[in-house]
Amino acid sequence: MWLPVLGLLIGLLLGFMSDLRIPPEYTSYLSIAVLAALDTLFGGIRAQLQKTFDDRVFVSGFFFNILLAAGLAFLGVHLGVDLYLAAIFAFGVRLFNNIAVIRRLLLTKGSENQQAERN
Amino acid sequence: MKRRFKFFIMTMIVGFMLAVQFHTNQEPIVRDTRDIWELRNDLESQKTIQQKLFAEIYKYEQLIDEYSKSGTGGQLETLEETLADLKNDAGLTEIGGHGVELTIEPLLNDEELVGKPAISIHPELLRRLINELNGYGAEEISIDGERIISTTPIREVNGKTYINDEPISPLPIKVKVLSRDSDKLHKEMLTSQSGEDFARENLLLSPKQVDHVSLPPYSHQIRVKFMKEKGET
């Protein structure tokens, strides 16, 4: 459980230490990529809790979603349509769904544990 | 274990992306890189502004003093004085003094070229001339007997140039400029950019220093759009 948190911290630290900045015109791509990555991450946690986790699905989903979101944003910029809104909407909905499912799974797990203790 | 390691890598990437995004959105800190001389210059200019403001405050305080001290007759007098001052500032009075007179005439006066259309002065040329004159310290300007005030329109209607909604007369026309240092203004105008611009339009702009120029008052109504009368206090 602590390993992913440690990874997050190391990533944050690396990001802050590197003093890397992205040109302002590319910030929308990065933000959408962050959203896609978060979505995949929560999807992975949910799959883990539901015991349907698959490495290949997770890793491919992670990179594929990021690339798809950035590509959609790129296409939107060139077509003059705000296509990145579609990606934000889709990922936002999925993020909320995933978190809701994780919460319910954790709650049922907790109540099961309590039941087991009483018995 | 392998699965956990993958999670670790993923979260690290997410963290990195988050940090970069955060960094990018953060405004870079703008450092003050002025050296001591620049700072001194800035201080000097601020002090000049302060002095000007103080002088203005002093002027108005004196005015208030005059209002409050003198009786009704005196108050009326002061009011009339202020009104006259304001009219003077707005350009509603005739004014005269040392100045420069610029004549605009055709550059090449080819009398044999009969049938050439009359040359008109483009409004943009006049605007540039006024800007340049103001840049060289002109105080009051009149073009072809029309006083230039802060709201004077100069525009082209059906191929004719209008100043203060009056068409300008055929060439040559005179531009009268009042200045505190008319000698300097005259010298500046001898080598001005406007001279070049006029020459490009086949017009000659010749400045002449005169002891006394007389500028007519602005003869139209000044419309005040964005001010309201203050009620009784």
**What structural class do helix, strand and pairing data of chain A support?**
mainly alpha
Radius of gyration of chain A: 18 Å
Uncertain runs of chain A: none
Main sheet specs of chain A: none
The side-by-side strand order for the widest beta sheet of chain B comes to: 3-2-7-1-8
* Overall mean confidence score, pLDDT of chain A: 86
Unreliable spans of chain B are: none
CATH-level-4 superfamily name of the domain at 95-109 and 118-215 in chain B: Protein of unknown function DUF881
- Total of DSSP H or I helical runs spanning 4+ residues of chain B: 6
Shape of chain A: globular
What does this structure look like?
The complex is a heterodimer of chains A (119) and B (233). Chain A is mostly helical. Chain A has one domain (23-118). Helix content of chain A is 85%, strand content 0%. Chain A is built from 4 helices and no strands. Chain A has helices at 2-18, 27-50, 55-79, 84-118. Chain B is α+β, with helices and mostly antiparallel strands and 233 residues long. Among the domains of chain B are: 45-90; 95-109 and 118-215, Alpha-Beta Plaits (2-Layer Sandwich). Chain B contains 6 helices and 8 strands, in the order αααβαββββββααβ. In chain B, the strands form 2 sheets. Chain B has a 5-stranded antiparallel β-sheet with strand order 3-2-7-1-8, with helices on one face. A 3-stranded antiparallel β-sheet of chain B has the order 4-5-6, with helices on one face. In chain B, helix 2 (36-69) packs across helix 3 and helix 4 (123-135) runs antiparallel to helix 6. Chain B is extended and about 100 Å long. The mean pLDDT of chain B is 84. Classes of the chains: A mainly alpha (119), B alpha+beta (233). Chains A and B meet through helix 1, helix 2 and helix 3 of A and helix 1 of B.
List the helices and strands and how they pair.
The complex is a heterodimer of chains A (119) and B (233).
Chain A: H1 2-18, H2 27-50, H3 55-79, H4 84-118
Helix pairs in contact in A: 2-3, 2-4, 3-4
Chain B: H1 2-25, H2 36-69, H3 72-90, E1 95-106, H4 123-135, E2 138-143, E3 146-148, E4 154-157, E5 160-163, E6 166-167, E7 173-179, H5 182-190, H6 193-200, E8 203-215
Antiparallel strand pairs in B: 1-7, 1-8, 2-3, 2-7, 4-5, 5-6
Helix pairs in contact in B: 2-3, 4-6
